[in-house]
Design a protein that fits this description.
Elements: E1 5-6, E2 20-25, H1 29-42, E3 45-51, H2 54-60, E4 68-71, H3 79-90, E5 95-100, H4 108-116, E6 120-123, H5 133-145, H6 149-153, E7 173-178, H7 182-191, E8 201-205, H8 212-223, E9 227-229, E10 241-243, E11 249-254, E12 260-265, H9 277-286, E13 292-296, H10 305-313, E14 317-321, H11 331-337, E15 341-345, H12 347-355
Parallel strand pairs: 2-3, 2-4, 4-5, 5-6, 7-8, 7-13, 8-10, 9-10, 13-14, 14-15
Antiparallel strand pairs: 1-3, 11-12
Helix pairs in contact: 1-5, 2-3, 4-7, 7-8, 7-12, 9-10
Protein name: protein-glutamate methylesterase
EC number: 3.1.1.61
Keywords: Chemotaxis, Hydrolase, Phosphoprotein
Length: about 375
């Protein structure tokens, strides 16, 4: 019998909205107890199951349904990282939040977990320090990832507007923005994108600077393309990926010879994000190239709406990830609700839509 324990706990009453159901997977009894107490004090979250190993979690998920799974990576047995694909397979749509001391800044394990489908990560401090700001951040992340069916069914804003017609000009520049859940979505997107699209590619993914080297290497491997962290003045090259560094906005400008170059900028974006998708897309819009395409993948918040507005106004097109495949349908939803999207599709189909814009002169190359 698995040591995972399905539990029912009292939660504060929230009219018409059931509590979020949470599973905690951690081999430390102390950590499980502290996390449980912290989450329950936050209100509106029910501990539905706990497990001491990833193997126990897989077994328990066959019997209990949850919205969010807190997963430690370093545990006895196969460990959380190696068992993550199995957990996601049986989780029935539950989102996984990595809460681990291995989620150190720059840790390869963190980016690997995100690439495999974890929605978000949070560095677990020493057990005696799991409190204060950590608790606030943890609860906020759980709530963002664990939107219940009742909440989704409750109108909270405008529904997505009708899709716009996609421009027909030959693809000239591809700009991709993503946040929470975006690393996994990026992998799926680039796996179906042709190796030769004959246009440069720029990417803004919300990540802190220490993660960027690992992220760039993993994205390059997944995309099978030259992938670099953008530096000021760097020239854009067809079929190569330039990634926004974690401490600056990636924007582009046209040189006198018609080539494109990176211009890194600082300052606060209206979204509050650094790097932000908005300045990237706004700079693409300023080029006034109708063949430019923006893609907005899974992410929390509204980053990308202002930039998408500018890009569409300049004649470009914007595609967004669908709700079903998004870890958090925040950024894509905001763009769709603003009436800016030409397509709302899973990442693989978005890639095929982009591929349809490859010019006829290049289609057979």
């Amino acid at each position: 019998m698995a040591s995972a324990l399905a539990r029912q706990t009292a939660a504060p009453h929230h009219p018409q909205v059931r509590p979020l159901r949470l599973m905690i997977v951690d081999d430390s009894l102390v950590a499980r107890a502290v996390l449980t107490r912290m989450v329950e004090l936050g209100g509106g979250i029910e501990i539905a199951a706990v497990a001491g190993t990833a193997e126990d979690a897989v077994e328990a998920l066959a019997h209990v349904r949850v919205d969010v799974i807190l997963l430690d990576l370093e545990m006895p047995g196969a460990g959380g990282l190696n068992k993550l694909p199995d957990i996601l397979r049986v989780a029935r749509g539950a989102r996984v939040l990595i809460v681990s001391s291995l989620a150190e800044e720059g840790a390869a394990a963190t980016v690997r977990a995100l690439a495999q489908g974890a929605a978000d990560t949070l560095l677990k401090p020493g057990t005696g320090r799991i409190q204060g700001r950590f608790a606030d951040i943890l609860i906020a992340k759980i709530r963002a990832l664990g939107i219940t069916e009742e909440e989704e069914a409750t109108p909270s804003g405008p529904t997505p507007a009708p899709l716009r017609a996609m421009a027909t000009e030959e693809l000239s520049l591809l700009a991709v923005g993503a946040s929470t859940g975006g690393i996994h979505a990026l992998g799926r997107f680039f796996a179906d994108l042709p190796r030769r699209i004959h246009a440069p590619i720029i990417v803004t993914q919300h990540l802190p600077p220490p993660f960027m080297d690992v992220f760039a290497r993993q994205l390059g491997t997944a995309a099978k393309r030259v992938t670099r962290i953008a530096a000021d003045g760097m020239r854009l090259v067809d079929d190569e990926i330039l990634i926004a560094p974690g401490d600056a906005h990636l924007t582009v400008e046209e040189r006198r010879d018609g080539s494109l170059a990176v211009r890194l900028t600082g300052g606060r974006a209206s979204s509050g994000c650094l790097p932000s998708v908005d300045p990237m897309l706004a700079s693409v819009a300023a080029l006034k190239r109708p063949g430019a395409v923006g893609v907005i993948l899974s992410g929390m918040g509204r980053d990308g709406v202002e930039g998408s507005t500018a890009l569409v106004a300049s004649g470009g097109s914007v595609l967004v990830q669908d709700e079903e495949t998004s870890a958090v349908w925040g950024m894509p939803r905001a763009v769709a609700e603003a009436g800016l999207a030409a397509a709302i599709l899973p990442p693989e189909k978005l890639a095929r839509r982009v591929a349809s814009r490859i010019g006829q002169t290049h289609a057979d190359q």
